[in-house]
Specification:
Layout lengths: L16 E10 L4 E10 L5 E10 L10
Antiparallel strand pairs: 1-2, 2-3
Protein name: Small CPxCG-related zinc finger protein
Organism: Halorubellus litoreus
Length: 65
Amino acid sequence: MVHCPECDTTLDSMDDVAFDDTESRIGIVRASKRFYVVECAHCGYSLGSGVAGAGGGGGGAAGAH
């Protein structure tokens, strides 16, 4: 079994963790990324994080003359 390193709660179902996602926009290239954090649902300790891919939004050098 997996346990939270902070509160020692057993993490054995989806209800034992909370997923938080945040969108970040980078104005210089108009791309967006989503940052994900997985937390213990019992104490809020951050167990891990990740980044999802960026979507193009224009504003780059493509098509410039």
